[in-house]
Amino acid sequence: MANENGGDGDSDKQLKTCAVLGGRGFVGSVLVEMLLRIGNWIVRVADTAKTPELKPSESVLADALASGRAAYFQVDVRHTSQIIQAVEGVSVVFYFDSMDSFPPDFYFCYNIIVQGAKNVINACRECNVKHLIYNSSADVVFDDGHDIHNGDESLPYSGRVWDMVTDLKTQAEALILFANDIGGVLTCALRPCNVFGPGDKQLLPLLVNMAKSTWVKFIIGSGKNLSDFTYVDNVAHAHICAEESLSSQKGSVSGKVFFITNLEPMEFWEFASLLLEGLGYQRPVTSLPAWATHFVVLIIKLLHMKSDTRKLDPFVSVYNVASLALRTRTFSCSAAEKHIRYSPIVSMEEAVESTVDSYSHLAVDSPFMICKDSNEPSKVEKLLGSGKVADLLLWRDEKKTFLCFFFLAFLYHWFFLSGRTFISSVAKLLLLIIVLLCGHYILPLTGYESSIPRIPSSCFEISEVDMRNSFFTIRCMWNKLDSLTKSLAQGEDWCTFLKASIFLYFFKLIVPPHFTVAVGLGLILSFSLCFVYEQYEERIDVIASVVLTVAERVLMLFVRKLPMSSSSVSFDCKPLVENESSQHLLLDSRQ
């Protein structure tokens, strides 16, 4: 096989043949290119697609496929026969799960991950494969409830099923480690932590998905939790190190598992901010307490579990990012450094820079994102006019919104909770304003240095145009109210009459006894409901459409049983009168 496919003709290099199952995935594709660049590997790329569908940047793989140093196999790990065709005659199998993301279907995921691992083991035994290296995950020891500080390979499996895919990967890893040195196959597993890099379909898309919503403005938890991250090239390099160590010192590597990181733990939100700032998004500055975040995350998780959609929306992103950000997860790579001689080949600084460059099409100032965001404002933003009011109620600028809310809360306390009458409250408020203005005017003249400039007298002047516009607006509102009152009094519009009656009835029941509470609730809800609706717009619209449809049908049934108004009766009688008069004229002309 080596002589048959050895297209480079290097006599001083002993060619080895390997198979990369899942070789078109995130980490697998990087490993394939790295093996081909080394030059002494014949690589069999196996994945679920019919053709490899190469990108323009994958010139190395394209040249290798053309020269015979690489071959592509369509493999479904649920079928052992297809695996055997791909691994027959190879000495090493690098096994990656054939999908980077999985649908929420337990049976499908079990067949791909667990049953797939069993099939890969059986195929390797049948084909006399020497080495099987499995790409696992550091999540297998994480239970979503406890921090991990510098954890090593002695940590047991979490035993707590907090994520379906992670639980299945735990079973697959255990199967592969248990199969070590049975049938002549030496196995080991690698546990990279938080893999990221160009082509990432999980971590960075989660952050970008949050960045396109308003959640990215908040630091979930204290923001001080440390996490380990691993650049994709370092993960691929670790697999090559593991294969070399299995060949040279198999006793200390076979049947073992090793954590793989960049050896540079950092605060999760600092890492997220570096990526998002590189793409032009805002760095989060406002912290949400952990207990409140846990409650919100639980609600989001329940909503997602009951949803049939497979689309990764911003709310699922909040849940997944919160699971990463609320806990410390750092791991020791001393075993990997000692036994497989692993060390990162790409630093964290270079890794972040390379990742940001590869996702430039998702940057805020890219034509793609500008076109996408500018043409799709939310419904509540359109309703609020897309102006200053929308910016305040939708929390576009947290400082301005908080100051506005604080000022309104001050007025609410001054007028409603202080116990004074409205007239006395207005009088004292005007007196307070006058004292502040006078103090602001006098202080600079007495020698005190003030950084706040004097308020010019023009700020207290109202132009004639503004006064005319104000009176014109009041007149239009009065005319509309007058016409509406006449319409209700004459019984011309029963739908409007019912709406007004119901509103006045509930206003009479709720507002007078609890007017102060109603105003306070209105103040709080105005600054929260718009923001919440923008986040859950699609789901709220579905519920609202159902409620409105039912209400309209009930209203139509009720209106049909109401008596007709006098105007409609007179209107219906007019044609009869006209017909009678025309008949009399016709008889007179005949006579």
Number of helices, where a helix is a run of at least 4 consecutive DSSP H or I residues: 24
**Strand residue percentage:** 5-15%
Strand order within the widest beta sheet: 3-2-1-4-5-7-12
Average of per-residue pLDDT values: 79
Please tell me how large the radius of gyration is.
Answer: 35 Å
Q: Structural class of the helix and strand makeup?
A: alpha/beta
Oligomer: single chain
Largest sheet: 7 strands, parallel
Categorize the overall geometry: elongated
How far is the first residue's CA from the last residue's CA? 119 Å
Estimate percent helicity.
40-55%
How many strands? 15
**Poorly predicted ranges (pLDDT <50, ≥5 residues)?**
1-12, 306-315, 367-375, 446-450, 565-587
Domain Reticulon: 389-584
Protein name: Reticulon-like protein
GO molecular function: oxidoreductase activity, acting on the CH-OH group of donors, NAD or NADP as acceptor
Transmembrane segments: 402-423, 429-448, 515-536
Describe the 3D structure:
The chain crosses the membrane at residues 402-423, 429-448, 515-536. It is a multi-pass membrane protein. InterPro entries: 3Beta_OHSteriod_DH/Estase, Lipid_A_modif_metabolic_enz, NAD(P)-bd_dom_sf, Reticulon. It comes from Sesamum indicum (Oriental sesame). The model is unreliable at 1-12, 306-315, 367-375, 446-450 and 565-587 (pLDDT under 50). The strands form 5 sheets. A 7-stranded parallel β-sheet has the order 3-2-1-4-5-7-12, sandwiched between helices. The protein has a domain at 370-442 and 507-544. The protein has helices at residues 2-5, 26-38, 59-67, 80-87, 106-126, 164-178, 203-211, 232-248, 268-278, 290-306, 314-325, 334-339, 348-358, 367-374, 379-383, 388-393, 398-417, 422-442, 464-490, 494-510, 515-526, 529-535, 537-560, 566-590, and strands at 16-21, 41-47, 70-74, 92-95, 131-135, 148-151, 186-192, 195-196, 218-220, 226-227, 230-231, 257-260, 266-267, 286-288, 329-331. It has 591 residues and is of the alpha/beta class. Helix 2 crosses helix 8, helix 10 (290-306) packs across helix 11 and helix 17 packs antiparallel against helix 21.
